[in-house]
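#dry-run=false #mode=assembly
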Amino acid sequence: MTMQAAQEKVSNIHSSVTLSNTERLELYYYLRLTRECDNAILRLYKQGKIVGGAYTGYGNEATAVGSAYALENHDYLFPMHRDLGAHLVKGQTLKNIFLQQLARRDSLTRGRDGTGHYADPSLKIYGNVSHLAAMIPMAVGVALAARMRKENAVVMNYIGDGGCNVGDFHEGLNMAAVMKLPFILIIENNQFAYSTPNTKQFAAQKLSDRALGYGIPGFTVDGTNIIKVYEVCKEAVDRARRGAGPTLIETITMRMHGHSASDDASYVPKGMVEEWKKKDPVEKFERILTNDRVLNESNKKEMEEKMAAEIEEAMQFALDNPYPAGEDAAEGVYAP
Amino acid sequence: MARIEVVMPQMGESIAEGTIVKWHKKVGDKVKKDETLLEISTDKVDSEIPSPAAGVLAEIVIPEQKTVAVRTIIAYLETEGGVVTAEPAKPTANPLAEAPKPVAATVVPPVVTAVKPLAAPASGRFYSPLVLNIAREEGVAMTELELIPGTGDGGRVSKKDILAYVVAKKSGAVAAPAATPALKAAPVGIVAKPVDVPELRAKYPAPNFEILQMSNVLQKMAEHMVKSVQTSPHVAAIHEVDMTNVAKHRSAHAVEFEKKEGFKLTFTPYIVDAVAKAIKKYPLINTSIEGDKIIKKNFTNIGIAVAAENGLIVPVIKNAEEKNFLGLARAVNDLATRTRTKKLTPDDIQGGTFTISNYGVFGTLIGTPIINQPQVAILGTGAIKKRVAVIDDAIAIRSIAYFTLSFDHRIVDGALGGMFLEEIVQYLQNFDMNLKF
Amino acid sequence: MATMTYIEALSKGMWEEMERDRSVFLIGEDIGAYGGAFKATKGFQQHFGEERVIDATLSEAAIIGAATGAAVVGMRPIAEMQFADFVTCGFNQIVTNAAKTHYRWNLPVPMVVRLPSGGYIHGGPYHSTNPEGWFFHVPGLKIVAPSTPYDAKGLMKAAVRDNNPVLYFEYKYLYRRIKGEVPDEDYSIEIGKGDVKREGSDIVIFTYGSTVHHSLEAAEILSKEDGVETMVVDLRTLLPLDKELIINSAKSTGKVLIVHEDTLTGGIGAEIAALISENAFKFLDAPIRRVASLDTPVPFAPPLEEYFLPDTNKIVKALRELSSF
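#status=ok
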């Protein structure tokens, strides 16, 4: 893309923006916070302090932040493992994020599960299981409960380009469609399901075309453009809230890291990452805000310093927290 | 200053080791927190490793190109200030989990009660765990059990059969057959390896003859025994011992003793105790002879002859005179265990001043043991059997054994030998039933 | 006190719980207007409305998954599998989501999955399975298996009120074959407690569900013809097992027979035998015996199915072998 073309695209986005500058700065803050948190998690992993795996959201930040930004406090979030940004937008603290990553005693799962696999009912965040698609029917059930109790809440759930080939995707989405539930499913199409490219995962032209089969609206949107993501999600949220049923949204982006930190992603064709790097969702929005003079050296620096201090504090807090005692493993199989 | 460990990270759930490709810092270099410290390579991924803290690289433990297991310490950093935050978190008890709630996954601990095992049935007849359990609890010996007619499958003694027997026995309808409380099962037979010696083979052709090599222990024993018989004029005195009180005391304390001490209470410490006390009264038994001199020992080291896998072995309880009953029991168990597990030290089998040989474990009633030189006497203990005895002109069933004292008539005469043996017998027959541990 | 069938009793249990608690709702295939394949929910939708008696899509994963999600946010769903066999399609939702959620999230999952189970009805390989063994190995689930109308209603109420996922195994063979007295007043049966259905001191049978009835018949025959008294323990709950009752009953009799309709290998009986062996070995006067179905799929033709399933004669034979051991 030439510089001129990029400029055109920028102004094109600018023209359709409905958010205030304060809100746009807030979006940028969450994008950057997600990125910096991911970096901190990777460092902890490489320093041998995080056990298991480390999964970043590199390339998925605009989807996570932009979609969750369309939710109200009383709405439900069922994120997947690339959606740290959605956790943060929904109000999760950095301390809780790092306690989870480090499997500490006072983490939300008390060390029983890691990463974003937690639930925080106070924020209405219900994390994923590793079989991502298995969460879809569960999220649909929450939408059903919310409607039965007249909460006027919507449920936003996420899946990947790989996960949407699991049967649960179909069963859950079909049930939600039949019942016209306040349910939004976002497919984060980031080109690879672990190492398998899209060409080997589905034959459809667009994953949002599947919506037609369920009789619901489906949209495909540029997943590197946070404003576009936000707009389509906001529309879907409004539709769900007024009782018009579910929406399927596909965001197109690129997973710019390996599946996890132990994956060197050598299967990604040469040049592909570099090409997508030009569309990096964080840097792209930064360019727009700089261009619009919303972001300048001074407020950017101030934001970065604040962020770094917050991350450092939360990380230390989590590192200082002990592991759970081994015998805790025997507790809590059943609810009292 | 604080010293911080740098470890090989686990780059992937299945990764077990990593190779250090390059150290980006030398020892003595300053490094910032999260600045690249080194590069590693693993089966899955190559990666630059950020420093866990700011400081100085104090020591490189693992050099470049070396492969080590994950979590291995590969270097140390010296940091400014004393606060070390890179320490791995130690688990602590969760304050919320102080009162553990019952959980479905709770394992029910198996109920293990210490009881004396019954001897193996000679007949090879099958007894169910329940029948054996009832027999133990009701004091029905294996010899008795073997005589109970069974109505179960293939003549098996069923629960009903043994319960009926116990009821009949308690009401006096059946008499208990004489029981043999097993002292201690010892391995029997001496292991000797076949050897091929041409000159002997000519004289003793196979397969009618086998030629076996005497083990060192066996050769020593032979040498020792011949020498003993040549050295000491042996005299044997035999005495009957009523072990009923000892047997009662033992069975009354067996369960509690095992629970407390972790090993079974056997008859041996009772006998060792009796011997140690008798030696105190008749110290001339605790001597040896050198030329025309008597060497009197002011300590009592009691050896116990044990049939081991490759021959006779005599571990020694040192300073038995200083030990109370419990101390003797522990010493006996310690030696028995170490004999079984082949953990005896040379010191364990030296320095004996008196020996006990318990051939009763093989059912022998009366024996005439050979003195363990340079000692001057040895006690042989026969099998304990229930016999009819006359006590105060009444007939009673008592647990009786025969003890033999073989002594060296060069120094011990019939009077001393007889009195010494009588002392042992009296002590055991009148054993203090109130003795607690 | 009213006399009613097994299916009427479990149905009444659901009805009363729905009247009592507005968070209780039903979701399943054909359960609404049609009243369910076995009519267990006949009249429910007319009374409670379409929102609380949901005719779901033909989607076991979605039914169980949606029930799990609703339960996690505080509802008390009862999900119906039309036949227990079809739970295979919802297996992932049960073991991945429902069973593990409390342990991971510390959130209760108060839900019931109804599973019409078992054979003796000539249903063949896909309408006669007893799939409890698949779930028995999953920490976090509770499993109940009532054998009488009284237990069916009492356990249904307990299952609905429990804060964990409860798999409610109900027996098609017993639906209209077994009648019994059921109190009118509110009662529930504690999950995790077995029930001695017949006293006896010579042998004990551990069983549950349909084979409780065959076991009781067999015990009567042994009593009349052999003078042997058999205790019959109805486990009622399979997870968590009533370990105390099992161990004590094994100790008091010394001879143990385990009877279940599920196939033999790796079944509940194997766990019970291990439990007794670990905790009551010294009290055993005979090897532990099991009577269960053959290790085959459930065959269709009546003679094949009869050969496959446990019945009164097979139990009598095993009891006599144990008695004469």
